[in-house]
């Protein structure tokens, strides 16, 4: 007779003898724990399809499997399925119970970003869900990731749509907490290009830099998709003798001779100076723009 025993299998990462393992733990039913557990390990091979990688029968309330880079690789989503039965009566099994899928590898949080050309910095966390193993006793016990950006759908060469605060980040070993065994942060900012080019798409990619461990060598985290929301550009004018229209639409005239500050940004190094000189006749005193300097 099949029954549900609420085994609640959970996968956690562990470092055993310097090698990355996954541990499936489950709760034996109280007060009569069954004698044996059948544990089936599987990985997501394609959407909705699993591939078996290991199975064992054990009296313990846990099971280990190694991330060996062959059967289980970084980037895999792993499941463990547990069935309980009594010794001597393997035909009387409980209902098999699945763990939640455990993503083993490096990932970005959040997995996608929508930002605007407003100069704000957005924090992007790079984390490893498995422990960083130290191959030796030197100071190279870390995984270095090279970060790159790419504009999507840009046909005209120009400045990138996004900027990162760092081109590399280091993941250093530490105790695992929650879903993170090592983490680093980088900030993402939309480049203010003063061009009305619509909403644009970019992506951030990461790849390990020359890791010694075979496990990390072929691992490429999933890219972060970034949507840059375009903001309207402000306009101001100084024309003819000179009429001035400000950013917020005020209109007035300036007929003085001299060099004046026309515009200055309060948030960045940008200003415009204008020089005006007499351009009228003896009948009408008029000035015109005769020079401009922009920083």
From TrEMBL:
The GO cellular component terms are:
cell surface; extracellular region
Alphabetical keyword list: Disulfide bond, Signal
Q: Which GO terms describe its molecular function?
A: signaling receptor binding
Report which superkingdom the organism of origin falls in: Eukaryota
Whether RNA-binding counts among this entry's keywords is no
List the InterPro entries: Dev_Signal_Modulators, Ig_VWDE, VWF_type-D
Q: Which residues form the VWFD domain?
A: 234-295
What name appears for this protein in its UniProt entry?
Answer: VWDE protein
The organism named in the record is Lanius ludovicianus
């Amino acid at each position: 007779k099949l029954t549900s025993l609420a085994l609640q299998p959970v996968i956690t990462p562990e470092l055993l003898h310097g090698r990355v393992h996954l541990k499936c733990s489950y709760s034996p039913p109280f007060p009569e724990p069954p004698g044996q557990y059948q544990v089936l390990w599987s990985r997501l091979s394609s959407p909705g399809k699993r591939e078996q990688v290991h199975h064992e029968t054990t009296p313990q309330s846990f099971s280990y499997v190694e991330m060996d880079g062959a059967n289980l690789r970084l980037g895999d989503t792993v499941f463990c399925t547990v069935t309980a039965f009594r010794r001597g009566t393997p035909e009387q099994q409980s209902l098999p119970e699945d763990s939640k899928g455990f993503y083993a590898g490096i990932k970005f949080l959040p997995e996608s970003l929508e930002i605007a050309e407003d100069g704000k910095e957005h924090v992007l966390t790079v984390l490893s869900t498995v422990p960083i193993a130290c191959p030796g006793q030197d100071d190279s016990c870390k995984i270095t990731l090279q970060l790159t950006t790419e504009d999507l759908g840009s046909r005209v060469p120009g400045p990138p749509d996004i900027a990162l605060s760092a081109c590399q980040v280091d993941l250093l070993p530490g105790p695992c907490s929650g879903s993170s065994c090592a983490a680093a942060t980088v900030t993402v900012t939309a480049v203010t290009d003063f061009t009305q080019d619509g909403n644009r798409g970019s992506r951030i990619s990461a790849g390990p830099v020359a890791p010694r461990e075979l496990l990390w060598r072929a691992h490429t985290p999933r890219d972060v998709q970034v949507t840059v929301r375009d903001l309207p550009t402000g306009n101001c004018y100084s024309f003819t003798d000179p009429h001035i229209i400000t950013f917020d639409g005020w209109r007035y005239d300036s007929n003085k001779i001299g060099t004046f500050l026309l515009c200055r940004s309060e948030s960045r190094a940008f200003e415009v100076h204008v020089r005006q000189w007499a351009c009228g006749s003896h009948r009408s005193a008029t000035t015109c723009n005769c020079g401009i300097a922009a920083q």
